[in-house]
Specification:
Length: 222
């Protein structure tokens, strides 16, 4: 059962401007990564469910967040069908992110008033997602399309809220390009939670990197 309404989730996405993306089968490591992101100022986490028994890790991680990290909004990414979306919502997912636009996922999430963000790559897909009730569209893979695509979409559809994922980096140049084009928020995975950070378990660096990224976003937004 979601702890936050879809409108609350959408507002936090807009306010903070960034969603860290992460997956590991290691629960303790996942807790440490989540806490570092939280201590760095992030208030959303997209658990990219790409491995066996991912739902078991997510369930425990969400319990940890509810108990220890007040205000942390847990969501799940890489969801590819309504059955998986329903499973993760039952485990406490507050938002569902998908790599593609699927109407069955939209129906499952809308039924429980849970925010869902589908991966779209054309204006037709974006429009269809909005017709199905999508608040914030995921542009994926972001690096293929770039900020110019976002700017092009926002011309005829200024109401469209876009979250690029893939190719977003925690640098001023990269983030300024995206936010100047009009994105609502960005999803950031390995360029923020790097392999080196995970290998070295350098959670202090991760906390600082999250702080820095959020500070850059605040600055480029003006």
């Amino acid at each position: 059962m979601a702890q936050f309404t879809r409108l609350e989730v959408a507002q936090v996405m807009k306010d903070t401007g960034m969603i860290p993306l992460f997956f590991s089968n290691d629960l303790e490591l996942s807790k440490n990564v989540l806490k570092a992101c939280y201590d760095g100022g992030a208030r959303l986490m997209e658990f990219t469910a790409r491995g066996d028994f991912a739902h078991e890790v997510f369930g425990e991680l969400t319990k940890y967040a509810i108990k220890e990290l007040p205000g942390m909004i847990m969501g799940v990414g890489s969801v590819t069908d309504a059955g998986a979306a329903s499973l993760y919502m039952a485990l406490g997912a507050n938002f569902i992110v998908t790599p593609v636009l699927r109407e069955d996922i939209a129906i499952a999430c809308n039924r429980k008033k849970v925010l869902w963000s589908p991966g779209c790559g054309t204006l037709t897909e974006i429009t269809k997602a909005e017709e199905l009730g999508c608040e914030i569209v995921k542009l994926f893979p972001g690096d293929i399309y770039g900020p110019q695509f976002v700017k092009g979409v926002k011309g005829p559809q200024p109401w469209t809220s876009i979250m690029p994922t893939g190719g977003v980096a925690p640098t001023e140049e990269n983030l300024k390009g995206w936010f100047d084009a009009g994105v609502t928020c960005v999803g950031m995975g390995s360029k923020l939670i790097s392999k080196d950070i995970i290998a070295n378990k350098d959670y202090a660096k991760l906390e600082q990197d999250v702080k820095n990224a959020l500070s850059i976003i605040k600055t480029v937004r003006g």
